[in-house]
Every structure is written in structure tokens, then in C-alpha cells.
Write a structure and sequence with these properties.
2 copies of one chain form a homodimer. Chain A is α/β, with parallel strands linked by helices. Chain A is about 65% helix and about 5% strand. The first copy, chain A, contains 26 helices and 10 strands. Chains A, B: This is Sulfate permease, SulP family.
Chain lengths: ~575, ~575
């Protein structure tokens, strides 16, 4: 027992170690292959997302070594692939542009503060078990946010793709007016590199896979080949750019010299200022990063009958982001597409992620020198193709057909992200979805019921031919009684009681009430006093166990007394009926 | 029918006219008497609350004529007594001190803008039927807010009571440090007037009533005499101040010259600037004013079997506040104590309010000249005694014993109002109560159930000795499925399914689910796909009508098919049981 307890604790705190102990050579090999494939996808994306975040490209590599290893040790998901992600990158950029005000050093330090703060936020939430706070983001809002952010990201890449200069701080609309205003500054060579890469990348997806499988290549191998495409595009375009002298001769913006290797772990950023100013942005980055990561992790885990622990994931992703800050990198999260690739390539444990990290580290030492001539428009093309698949406007129609309110929240989030900016759009959508929820539960269904034939069933008088009694009102409440509907429930009960006067007894049937908060209790309490003043007795029936446990010690229940609390509507009627003459309802 | 329809419409839009048509002379006399008693209570309070709001005392009178008449015509409550109220007054002051920055003209105009904006807010909410928005304020938060505001108001009156100067912008703590720092500036004459009034006012409440009834005075008459006390205190102290020359000889701060009469209706404030800056404060004043008014109105209406229409009340109170702005006055609301006095004095219709307004107008023309020597400390004493009864700290203990979360929200509101200020305290408390609600519903009760004996009842396997079947999992969800609990429900279902493998069928029993939003639908949809991929069939049972109506047209239901949607848990088991061998649960 002690040993199994220890094993469970180790699985809890260092899942990777216990996974490795139970693995075998064949599985390790499989993990190594999956990690390699993921690395091939990751390296070009890491460079591109660093640029998207407004940082030097090598920062994307820094974000893909130490943080990945930390997550591999602590994370409970066996296949989640963490690293730089597009949405977090654009959130970093939108937080840092006003923060740095053009100072590149302040921008870089700001990114580390964001990593550390969002890591700290997640860590605290994990320790305090506040994971439920992330539930504020409903699915439609998350979907709207992702689509909106993806559209915004694509707009930001139009400048790099075309060579037309657009200030980084330009909003969605401003980007297009700037592009139109400076259309004469379009750089044909830049555009050529960008469009060629775009076409190659698009072709290398489904068309290449279909072409290969049609020629007898296995679908697994075809998928792998299709994933190598971005790296091949980078290699080809870099060579082409180098041979033609694209930068010097045609003015194509290229990546330039990238420092070789990885920086040492540094805590210098801790002394910088601006922590408080960046906290709200960091919290939002943490929230979105976590929600994305945990949903991928849960879906993948369930496919293999594994489990992820949402609270431990908070701790793991928190530590991962703090590691990113120490490694000189931007915030990271679990990427959806990358994790799917990792899973499909056969990753079974986080050993695959360690392999990925080692490949990235190796490329930071060996290949950075070769990337100097890589045109930035190629990286822009990689971003566009990667985020294009995040846009899902059909989801909006889909939501609309099911729930107009949710669709409004989703639409507001998309429009908000584009017109108000990333953060305000998200907050506007989340607030609206909360408001709509309160609206829905603010008008609960309240039915006057009567007895169905000679049965013990009591049904809505408006829908069924039921028996009622003069002087006796039976009312069923079909929703939790809480502050958002307490005023409405009070008005409705007042109305029903006034309409059914003269009354001797009122029975509230509480079968649909799972929770009564203080506002709900106040409504019941006031109602009992008001009725008592008019000589009417209030009864309760079918009160659920947990509700009764709470009510038990209240003044209300002492006043009502045990003889006016009934197990069922029928028992209530039987107990009262002596003083109520039978009457057919119309 | 047409006539009754017209009558109903008139009752709806001009309730007073139809009430008067159905009244008689005896009732009108009764209303006249009630209106007079209310006016006697109102006049000193109106002067005092105007000072509390940081305005000249006559503004309180202006707020008690035209606005009262407008409400009398439009309001659906027959006995609500509107006018200046203490909590709104202190909210006006806290909004205008930073807004006016020491400019008295800007302060005065700001108050009119606040009246107009809060009226406009209520009017819009009434027209758009957004009354449910006020449900954001839970009872514990409202109670905490009222107590906190009352404590804060009393603190602000210490300066006027003692004559020690304290800057109006001082916060709760600063008031006491300022009082201590300048204790040497205490004015004994001011303090004497204040304390004497305080003692007289306290004695004139219950002690006077008890003394009078003990001497054979009827309790009704005793109550009326007790209510005249504030006016008598004002008369006596004004005379004493005038005779002793308290202002000139002892430096007692007095009300000073009050302009005679009422100002004409003016729309000049419409051209002032600062509307946008004052909107949030105005919205909060509107919210609190409405919530207070509607709860008093509802309680009083129900006592006589009458009805108030919450939406029409929004329109009526909105128009009333816009009238206040045009009359040169601060925002008004229905006062709790004043409405009770009006009701107890026998008011049957809003004719009583019209009488009240006429008395106030008369006193503005006749008596303002007499008030020049009234010490401000007397008005401070009136404020202190009036708001003292709003402090209800026992409510906090009461809430704690019923619901710790609600008590935390209540406590935070009190502390927040005192330390963060009126508005931020309210927002902090309201946010916490919302958060706690989401927390509660974020962990719904989910039970694995089995068959109880040979009945058709299915109960929790953990609580009852029930029959279960290998390969068949029956799960009951006891809460609405919505975004705040969707992630948790998904994790729980994943866990239960992984634990009960191998499975052939999973039945979700939806008897406790009254609503499934898009996030909830996504959880069900994803679950069905994941289960189908593992060869497990998902079934639904006991789906409520409104939930089924929505689900009907979804892809999920098309995939599940009618044969896997069951009326009851038992029917689901009967339909599936061919491929599930019986098994006793441990």
C-alpha cells in the first residue's frame, strides 16, 4: 500500500518518470520519432510566432527548449505539445506595443515579465484550486475569440507579405487603410517569396497528401511528408534568397543574423519595472493559454483512456511559463495543431516532447547561421497558413441555429477582437455571455399544478386536465432560487397568490430547486411573513436533501414547522385537504 | 370589453387618474392626512440629504415637489413615497467630488446631469425591458451596501456635528485621522446643538411612543406625534440659535439664507459637459435607487393585495429623475422609512404624495426665510438618526449561518464601501457574489445510478443498494449544463467512463437539466463522437421538453437517433438490456 501510494504521488508530481519506468525500448523509439516530427513542424513556427509577437525570431527557439522540458516533467498530459502559439503571440504583441512605446529593450523585458506573470497566475490558480475561474470563457466566446484573433493575425501579416510598411500599432481597420495609402511601396520580390511560400504550403497540405496516397504511399507516411513541407519551404526560399541576393539587390526584408546557441538562464528581468501594468494582460494570456491547452489535453487523453488533472495542469503550465521567462522567452501554451501531430505521429509519453526540445536546441546551435537570408515574408506565409485553419465562421451559424444568445456573444467577440482589440473583445464577449446566462435564469418556469386524475401525479393546470381545490394553491418552481431570479420569483408568487384569493394554504413544490441562496431564502422568508399576516399558511413539499440541510437551521423553517413540510405534493394535499372543499378546474 | 381595455390601459399608464375615479371623499381625506404626515417627516430630511449630497439645502426641497408629482402620476405603487434618499445622496457626493474638482457651479450642474442620466438609464431599461439587469445586486450585497453606506454617512456627519473641519473628499479612514488631528478646533456650541438634537431625536422614537401610550394616548396618535419630532427639533433649535446669535457669537455653522420659492423648470444643464464621465456613477445610482424602491413598493403592494409592475416602475422612476433634473434637483428614489410612514398613516393612493408635494412647495415659499439660523449640526443629527436604522450588522451573522459565500460577499461589500469607496465597494461585492454563484454551479452533482429493487426507480449507487449491469453505465446530471460547468462535467464523465470500462452503452439521465447552452451541447456532442470512436453507444433519458425542443435540430440528435432517446431510465435499461448481463453491485 505504501509503495503504491508513493507511486501514485510520483505519478502525480513527476508523471514522466513513472511513465518511463513502465515503458519499453519500442515505445521509446516511437516517442523519439514523434518528437522528431513535431520538431520539424515546430522550428519554422517558433521563428514565425516570435516575429508575430514582435520579438527577434530566436526567442521562439528559446521558448521551445527549457519550457518544453519543464512541461514534460510536470504535465499530466502525455501528448500535449507546448511551445509558442499564435494566439498568445498576438496577445503579447498587443500588450507590449503600448507598454514599450517604441523601446526595444523594454519590449523584450516586457515579454519576460508577461511570461513570468502568466506563469505565476496559473501556478497560484493551481495551488488555490481556482481552475473553475477559467469557466468564465464559454465555448462560443472561445471560438469567436480564436476566429477573431486569427483574422486579425492574418491582417497583421499582410505588411510582411507585401513589403508595404504598416506601423505595428495599427488596428484592424488601420492596417487596410495604411496598405491602401502606401500601395506604391509594394515590394514585388517580397510578395513573390510570400505568395510562392503560401501556395507551396497550401499545396503541401491536403493536395499533397491526396497526390501521394493516390500514388500508393501509405497515408501515415504521406501525412509525415506533408508535415515536413514548411521546413522544406524555409530551406528552398532561404537558398533562393541567398543566391539571388534578395536582400541587397531587391530590398527583401530578411531575418538577418540570429545569435547562435541558447542563452543561459537569467533572472535579470525580475528587477525590471512595469509588473503591475502588465498583470491584466498576463492574466488574460494565462487564461486563454490554459483553456486551449486543457481542452486539447483532455480530448487526447480520453482517446486513449488516460486522464489529465486540470489542477495539476495549472501548476505544470504555470511552471512552464516561469521557465520560459527564465529562458528569455515569450509565454507558451499547448498548441492544438502541434499536439494533434504529436499524437498522430504516435507519441505515447512526454519523452517525445523531450526529443522535440533536444532537436530545437540542436538547431539553435547548428542552423541559425543559415537562416540569415530567410525572407520574413516566408515566415508570414507560414503564420497565415497555420492560423487560417483557426478561423471557423461556420461555427457562428451553427451556434445561431442552436442558441441565438450564445451566437450574439460569439459574434460580439469576433467583432470586438477586430474593432476594440484582442483583450477588450474577449472581455466584451465573456461579459455578454455571463449577462445572457443571468437573463435566462432570471425568468424561471413557475407552474400552478393540480392532481392528475386519481394518481399521485401533480401537473401544470395549463397543460393537463387536473383537479384543484378552493383555498389551496400548489405552485412548482423549476429553477434554483438565487439572486438573479429572486425578484422575479417573488413577483410571480405575489401575482399568483393575489389571483387565487381567498386562500387558506399555499404549497411550494421544490422538486426542481437544487440550491437556494440567501436572496432566495429572503424571498421565502418574507413570503411566509406576508402570508401569515393575511392568515394564509405556507407549506413546502419535495424539498431536496441538500436544500433541506441548509434550510434546517433557519428561522423560516422554525416558523413553518415540521407539520407543514411534506415529502410530496400529494402528501401535502392529503394533510391539508380537511379544510379544502373539492372543485373542478375550468 | 373595449371600455375595460381602455380602463386597463389607463390604469397602466396613468394609474393615479383611475384610482381617483374609483375613490371617495373619505378616502381622499385619509390620503390628505397621510400626505401631510409624510411631508412633516420629509421637509427636514430633504434639507439634510441635500447637504449630505454636498448641495445647498433648498435643492432637497426642489427634489420633493415636481419629481413627487411625476411619480404620483406614472407609478404603479400606490404608497411609495419618493424624494431625496440618504444612500443616493452620498453616491451623488462621491461621484461629484472628483468630477467638480472644487468648482461649485460644476458641482451643481453635475448633480442635474446625474439626475437626468440616472433617469434616462431607468427609462431605457424600462422601454427595453432590461429590468432583470438589476438582479445583479443580490440581497446580501444590497444589505452590505446599505450598512456600509450608512456607516460611511455617519462618519461624514461627524465633522458637521463637532464643528471640526474635514475636507469633503476625505475617505472613511481619513475622516478619523483628520478629526483627531484637528481635535482642538472642536466647536462646543456646534457640538451642543448636534448632541441635543441627537438625544431629542432618539428619545422621540420608541421612548416617546412608549411614554405616550403608557399615558393612555392611542398608539396611532403616539406614532404621529413621534414623527413630528424632527420638525419640532428643527423649530426649537432654530429659535435657540437665533436668540443666542449662535452663528455670530459662537461660530456655529448655520444653513444661511435660502432662496424663497421654487425655480422654474430649466433645461440649461443639457448644454453642460461631462455626461460621459458621469454615466457609470449615474447608472449605479439608478440601479441602487430602483432596487430599493421596487422592493419597498412590492412589499407594500402585496400587503393590500395590490400589484406593482416592475417594468412600468422603471419608466416611472426614470421620468421622475428626469423631472428632478429639470427642477434643478438631485436624483430621487423611493425611501424605505418614508414609504412605511405613508402606508401606516393610511395612504391609499398617490394622492397622498401629491399632498406631500404641495406642502413642500408651500414651505419653500413660506418658511425658508425662517431657516437661516438653523445650525447644520442639527441637520447632521437628523441624518445620523435616519441612517442609523439602516445599519444591520446582525444580517451579516445571519447570512454567515446560512451561506458562508453570501456572507463573504456581504462582508466584502461593507468593507469595500468603507475602504475603496461607495462605487468600488458595490462593484466588488456584486462581482464576488457572481463569482461565487459560478463556483457553486461549476461543480454539479453527477451520480452513477442503478435500479432500486424491482421498482422503476433509479438511485445513486453510493447511497442505495441498487442493481447495475456490466457494460452499461447510467449517469444522472443534477444541474443545468452551461459554460460554467461544461469543463467539469466533461472531466467527470470522462473519469466515470474510463473507470467503468469495458462499456457498451452510456445513458445520461437528464431529469435535473432545465437548460443546455452551446458549451453544454459541445460537451455532449464531443462525448458522443469520442464514445462512438470507441464503439460505445451514448443514450439520453428523461430529457425535459424545452431542452429537447432545442436539441431536436442538432447534429447530435441526428447521430444519436430516436431509438437511443428514452423517456425514462427504466425504459433505457429495458431497451439496452438484451446486450447487458445482470450483475450485483458491491
Amino acid at each position: 500500500m505504501a509503495a503504491s501510494g508513493k507511486a501514485r504521488r510520483q505519478r502525480q508530481w513527476l508523471p514522466l518518470l513513472s511513465d518511463l519506468r513502465h515503458g519499453n525500448a519500442a515505445q521509446w523509439l516511437q516517442d523519439g520519432l514523434a518528437g522528431t516530427i513535431t520538431a520539424i513542424l515546430l522550428v519554422p513556427q517558433a521563428l514565425a510566432y516570435a516575429l508575430l509577437a514582435g520579438m527577434p525570431p530566436e526567442v521562439g527557439l528559446y521558448a521551445s527548449v527549457l519550457p518544453i522540458i519543464v512541461y514534460a516533467c510536470l504535465g499530466t498530459s502525455r501528448t500535449l505539445a507546448v511551445g509558442p502559439v499564435a494566439v498568445a503571440a498576438v496577445m503579447v504583441s498587443s500588450a507590449l506595443i503600448p507598454f514599450a512605446q517604441g523601446d526595444p529593450q523594454r519590449y523584450l523585458t516586457g515579454a519576460l515579465i508577461l511570461s513570468c506573470l502568466s506563469g505565476g497566475t496559473l501556478l497560484m490558480m493551481g495551488i488555490l484550486r481556482l481552475g473553475w475561474l477559467t469557466n468564465f470563457i464559454s465555448h462560443p466566446v472561445l471560438s469567436g475569440f480564436t476566429s477573431g484573433a486569427a483574422i486579425f493575425i492574418i491582417a497583421t501579416q499582410l505588411s510582411a507579405l507585401s513589403g508595404i510598411p504598416v506601423p505595428r500599432e495599427a488596428g484592424f481597420i488601420a492596417i487596410f487603410t495604411e496598405l491602401a495609402r502606401h500601395a506604391d511601396k509594394l515590394n514585388p520580390a517580397t510578395l513573390a517569396f510570400g505568395l510562392t511560400s503560401l501556395v507551396l504550403l497550401v499545396l503541401s497540405r491536403d493536395p499533397l497528401k491526396r497526390w501521394l496516397t493516390a500514388r500508393g504511399v501509405g497515408s501515415g507516411q504521406a501525412a509525415i511528408l506533408s508535415r515536413v513541407a514548411p521546413l522544406i519551404v524555409v530551406a528552398i526560399t532561404t537558398m533562393a534568397s541567398s543566391i539571388t541576393g534578395a536582400h541587397d539587390r531587391y530590398g527583401v526584408d530578411v531575418v538577418g543574423r540570429i545569435p547562435q546557441g541558447l542563452p543561459g538562464v537569467s533572472l535579470a528581468f525580475l528587477q525590471a519595472s512595469g509588473w503591475l501594468a502588465l498583470l491584466p494582460s498576463a492574466a488574460l494570456i494565462a487564461l486563454i493559454g490554459y483553456v486551449e491547452s486543457i481542452s486539447v489535453a483532455k480530448a487526447l487523453a480520453f482517446r486513449r483512456g488516460e486522464k489529465v488533472d486540470p489542477d495539476q495542469e495549472l501548476v505544470a503550465l504555470g511552471a512552464t511559463n516561469i521557465a520560459a521567462a527564465c529562458a528569455g522567452a515569450m509565454p507558451v501554451a499547448g498548441g492544438f495543431a502541434r499536439s494533434m501531430v504529436n499524437f498522430d505521429a504516435g507519441a505515447r509519453t512526454q519523452l517525445a516532447a523531450v526529443v522535440t526540445a533536444l532537436w530545437v536546441a540542436l538547431s539553435a546551435f547548428l542552423f541559425t547561421g543559415l537562416l540569415a537570408d530567410l525572407p520574413k515574408s516566408v515566415l508570414a506565409a507560414i503564420i497565415v497558413v497555420a492560423v487560417w485553419q483557426l478561423i471557423d465562421l461556420r461555427a457562428l451559424l451553427h451556434t445561431w441555429s442552436y442558441d441565438k444568445g450564445d451566437a450574439m456573444a460569439q459574434g460580439l467577440t469576433i467583432v470586438g477582437v477586430l474593432l476594440l482589440g484582442i483583450e477588450h473583445g474577449l472581455l466584451a464577449g465573456a461579459s455578454l455571455s455571463l449577462l445572457l446566462f443571468l437573463y435566462r435564469t432570471s425568468r424561471p418556469h413557475i407552474a400552478v399544478v393540480g392532481r392528475l386524475g386519481d394518481t399521485e401525479h401533480y401537473r401544470n393546470v395549463l397543460r393537463h386536465p387536473v383537479q384543484t381545490w378552493r383555498g389551496l394553491l400548489l405552485v412548482r418552481i423549476d429553477e434554483n432560487l438565487y439572486f438573479a431570479n429572486a425578484p422575479r420569483v417573488e413577483s410571480e408568487l405575489h401575482r399568483l397568490i393575489v389571483e387565487h384569493q381567498p386562500l387558506g394554504d399555499v404549497v411550494l413544490i421544490m422538486s426542481g430547486v437544487a440550491y437556494v441562496d440567501t436572496s432566495g431564502l429572503d424571498v421565502l422568508d418574507t413570503l411566509e411573513r406576508e402570508l401569515a399576516a393575511q392568515g394564509i399558511r405556507l407549506h413546502l413539499a419535495e424539498v431536496k436533501g441538500p436544500v433541506m440541510d441548509r434550510l434546517m437551521h433557519t428561522e423560516l423553517i422554525r416558523r413553518i414547522g415540521a407539520h407543514r413540510i411534506h415529502l410530496s405534493a400529494h402528501q401535502a394535499v392529503c394533510a391539508i385537504r380537511g379544510n379544502a372543499e373539492p372543485e373542478r378546474s375550468p
